[in-house]
Amino acid sequence: MIKSELITRLAQEMHLSTQNAKVVVETIFDEIIQTLLEGGRVELRNFGIFSMRTRKSRMGRNPKTGEQVFVPEKRIPYFKAGKAIVNAINGKK
Amino acid sequence: MTEKVKTLVRSDIAEAIHQELGFSRSDAFKMIEKTFSIIAAELATRRSVKISGFASFEPYLKKERVGRNPKTGKEYPISQRTVLAFKPSPVLKKNKK
């Protein structure tokens, strides 16, 4: 499923115009993105938790030349799926 | 380290939708619930969900393997299961700090 299909389904099921459903979906993900970029976390009970995790800086290697390079610390978005969703994809109630 | 991080929850998103579109907060809340239940239902059928500009969620099968209780060293089989891969869009990888 892609975003436009999600918008269509939300519009049908909530009796919204496609335009409004689009703004709803975009607002949801914009809010999540903003929070994560500010270093915060997003908790959606039953669905999961989005957070940022820090990867330490390390010495890496250029695989082509074998040269050592410094890889700086970076922040990576992380998602931990909630119990309900883990059970659902495993066919459990 | 002890700096308090902001935690966004459904009602914060409902407030944003209320501000944006004028729907009541409770209607906005229902729309958010519906959005995530549509995504969850799709994932439950083991199909992936791609939200461009945000991330994609891809269910994949993990085979049965042998695990170990780290305390006792006893071996246990870990059953086959489906897990979710979360692949963030480059938008989320911007390094702010």
How would you describe the overall organization of this protein?
The complex is a heterodimer of chains A (93) and B (97). Chain A has helices at 3-14, 18-37, 83-89, and strands at 41-44, 48-55, 58-61, 68-71, 74-81. By secondary structure, chain A is an alpha+beta fold. In chain A, strands 1-2-5 form a three-stranded antiparallel beta sheet. Chain A is elongated. Helices cover 33% and strands 30% of the residues of chain B. Chain B has two helices and six strands. Chain B has helices spanning 10-21, 25-44, and strands spanning 7-8, 49-51, 55-62, 65-68, 75-78, 81-88. Chain B has a three-stranded antiparallel beta sheet. Chain B has a two-stranded antiparallel ribbon with strand order 4-5. Chain B is elongated and about 55 Å long. The model of chain B has no long low-confidence stretch (mean pLDDT 90). Chains A and B meet through helix 1, helix 2, strand 1, strand 5 and helix 3 of A and strand 1, helix 1, helix 2, strand 2 and strand 3 of B.
Please specify the SSE layout and strand pairing:
The complex is a heterodimer of chains A (about 90) and B (about 100).
Chain A: H1 3-14, H2 18-37, E1 41-44, E2 48-55, E3 58-61, E4 68-71, E5 74-81, H3 83-89
Helix pairs in contact in A: 1-2
Chain B: E1 7-8, H1 10-21, H2 25-44, E2 49-51, E3 55-62, E4 65-68, E5 75-78, E6 81-88
Antiparallel strand pairs in B: 2-3, 3-6, 4-5
